[in-house]
Design goal:
Largest sheet: 2 strands, antiparallel
Number of strands: 2
Distance between the termini: 91 Å
Mean pLDDT: 79
Shape: elongated
Structural class: mainly alpha
Helix content: 55-70%
Low-confidence stretches: 1-15
Strand content: under 5%
């Protein structure tokens, strides 16, 4: 038996040796299929058009889920965010008008993101801050990621304020309001002290005797803290710096600052309940 030497090694490979398509090539293939289905749907009518639209929507469900995942852990149930992303995908598919230079995903991505952001803006707030603060929060979502990629570190509040074009105080206020979608229950136990509730750690501003008593109890404890711990406390609760900014100043990671703050707060709370 002879082998045709004119056949290339690639052509002689058995089916099991075929290269597995890369993730990017699969995405490109999927995008092409969606585009083709929507272009056919634009020329079809009735049941045929509905079938083609449904086909395109089903093919792009993974893209909608990926966009939704960027909004997880922001106080709204992840499945609710996914459902809103699906709504945006359906709107995009029905509203798309193919042209010679158009691309569905370039149209769908901002449509889906806009649908999710509108949901957060209009429906998700349990405690609604001023509209300007809400808008800054959404602007922060994009600006933080873009600046982090550009700077190769997490941006400071000052850099975010400059990038968005708002005063520094507005950035601080927006970050303080970050828990307003789903505030923690006052009856929830503290992770570091299960016998204490969140509410028990809140000061009663009308009870000045308790305030003075707490200050006097904490004064010697704070004085005995290492210099770095006192600096972290001052930067976080007096200067309102972010953990990332504090980490840059003292030369540690944001995760290490979080751990140090956790240890400091345990020490202070223990002094209050002693």
């Amino acid at each position: 038996m002879t082998v045709d030497v004119s056949t290339s090694p690639e052509q002689q490979k058995s089916p099991q040796h075929k290269e597995v398509p890369s993730r990017q090539s699969r995405r490109d293939q999927q995008a092409a299929e969606v585009e083709a289905a929507l272009r056919l749907a634009a020329e079809a009518t009735g049941e045929r058009r509905t079938q083609l639209l449904n086909q395109a929507i089903i093919l792009d469900v993974p893209m909608a889920r990926t966009l939704a995942s960027r909004y997880y852990r922001r106080g709204v149930d992840s499945e609710d965010v996914v459902q809103i992303a699906y709504v945006g995908l359906v709107k995009a598919a029905n509203g798309y008008r193919p042209g010679p230079e158009t691309d569905f995903r370039s149209y769908a991505v901002p449509t889906i993101r806009g649908e999710i952001r509108r949901y957060f803006r209009d429906r998700a707030w349990m405690v609604r801050p001023p509209r300007g603060i809400q808008e800054i929060q959404f602007a922060l979502t994009t600006a933080e990621g873009e600046l982090a990629l550009e700077l190769h570190r997490w941006p400071t509040d000052g850099e975010l304020a400059e990038a968005i074009g708002v005063p520094l105080g507005d950035i601080i206020d927006a970050k303080r309001a970050s828990g307003c979608f789903r505030p923690s229950s006052l009856d929830a136990p503290l992770p570091s002290a299960p016998t204490l509730s969140v509410g028990s750690t809140l000061a009663d501003e009308s009870d000045t005797y308790q305030l003075v008593d707490s200050i006097e109890a904490l004064r010697p404890v704070v004085a005995d803290l290492p210099d770095r711990h006192r600096l972290i406390l001052h930067r976080r609760f007096v200067d309102h710096r972010t953990q990332a900014e504090i980490g840059i100043e003292i030369g540690v990671s944001q995760m290490q600052v979080s751990r140090l703050l956790h240890e400091i707060m345990i020490t202070l709370r223990s002094a209050l309940v002693a």
